[in-house]
Description:
The structure is a single chain. The protein has a single domain, classed as P-loop containing nucleotide triphosphate hydrolases (Rossmann fold, 3-Layer(aba) Sandwich), CATH 3.40.50. Helices cover 30% and strands 23% of the residues. It has ten helices and twelve strands. An eight-stranded mixed sheet has the order 6-7-8-3-9-10-12-11, with helices on both faces. Strands 2-1-4-5 form a four-stranded antiparallel sheet, covered by helices on one side. A hairpin with a 2-residue loop joins strand 9 and strand 10 (232-238). The longest helix is centred in the middle third of the chain and has 18 residues, at 187-204. The two termini are 17 Å apart. The structure holds adenosine-5'-triphosphate (ATP), iron/sulfur cluster and magnesium ion (MG).
Amino acid sequence: MIEALVRIEGLVVQYPLDSGVFAHSRGWVRxxxxxxxxxxxxxxxGLVGESGCGKSTLARAxxxxxxxxxxRILFDGQDVTRLAGAPMRAxxxxxxxxxxxxxxxxxxxxxxxxxxxxxxxxxxxxxxxxSQRVGELLERVGLSVELADRFPHELSGGQRQxxxxxxxxxxxxxxxxxxxxxxxxxxxVQAHIVNLLSELQERFRLTYLFVSHDLRAVAHxxxxxxxxxxxxxxxxxxxxxxxxxxxHPYTRALLAASLNPGxxxxxxxxEPPSPVSPPPGCxxxxxxxxxxxxxxxxxxTSIRVGEGHEASCHxxxxxxxxxxx
Length: 325
Ligand SMILES: Nc1ncnc2c1ncn2[C@@H]1O[C@H](COP(=O)(O)OP(=O)(O)OP(=O)(O)O)[C@@H](O)[C@H]1O
Ligand code: SF4
Ligand SMILES: [Mg+2]
C-alpha cells in the first residue's frame, strides 16, 4: 500500500456572500462541502467538474491559502489547517501551486529571471548564482534561457504557463497542485504541456493534483480521478475504471459532453444549482435524467462500486460491494 502524502478529511470551505458574484446578498457559499480525499505519494489525481463546483477552492485549501471552516488537511501527517509561521513556511516549500490564470499569477513588473529568482529568495535557495539556477529551471520546462529578460506580457500563454511551472519547481516540491494548466491554450500547446507535466512527474517522482476541464488530458496523465459537483466529490476511482464504466449519472453526463469535439465539461444539460442554496436530497437531482423519488429528499452516501472506486448515488446501492467505510 503506497503511503498517502495528502489526506483530506471532511473539508468544508465557505465564502461570505458579501464578496464575489454574490455581493448583493447575505449568507455563505459552500464552495467545498465535506470533501475527503487521499493523494498518494508519486500519484497523479485528476480533479474534474463544471465551472464553479469548487475545484480551485479545494486546490487552494491544500496549500493553506483559504480559510477552512471544518475538517483537516494532513500533508505528510501535519495538519495544514493548523500550522502557521515557520512550520507552515517549511511545509509550503514542499507543496506548490500553479494558478489557473498564469498571467495574473506572475508579477507583471518582474522579468522571468526575477520572478523565478524571487521564489528562490523566499525559500533561501538562491545561493551565489541564482541566474544559473533560473537557466536550469527554464531548460527543465523547455524554455530558452533567452526568455529570462522578458516580462510576462512579452510571453505567449504556453510560455507563461511554463514559467509558472519553473517557478513552482524552483523549490523542489513534492506536491504540485496544477489548477487548469491547459486553460486558454491552443490544442497543440496543450499537448506539449501535458507531455512536459508527464515527463517532470516521472523524472522528479512528483505528486500532482491536476485540475482540468480536459477529460482527455486527465485520462492521459492521472492515475485516479475525482469528479466534483457542487462542492462534493460524487465519484472517485482509477481513471480507467471511472471513464470506462462511470457509475454516477453526472460523470456519465460529463463524459458525454466531452466526447463532442470542441466541447468541455461546461456543457452538461441544465444549469448547475446555486451553491448558496443547494437542492435538498441529491444535489444533482434537478438535472439528473435517472433520478428516482428518493433523490429529492435523501442525500446519497458514498458507495463502493469497484476496486478503489466509489460513487455517491442511490442507484449504486446494493451494487458491487456495499458502502464505503
Ligand atoms: N473569493 C470568493 N468569494 C466568494 N465566492 C467565491 C470566491 N471564490 C470562489 N467563490 C465561489 O465558490 C464557488 C467555487 O468556486 P471555485 O473557483 O472553487 O470553482 P471552480 O470549480 O474552480 O470553477 P472554474 O472551473 O470556473 O475555475 C463558486 O460558486 C464561486 O463563485
Ligand atoms: S442519487 Fe438520484 S439524482 Fe442523484 S445522481 Fe443518483 S439517480 Fe441521480
Ligand atoms: Mg477554478
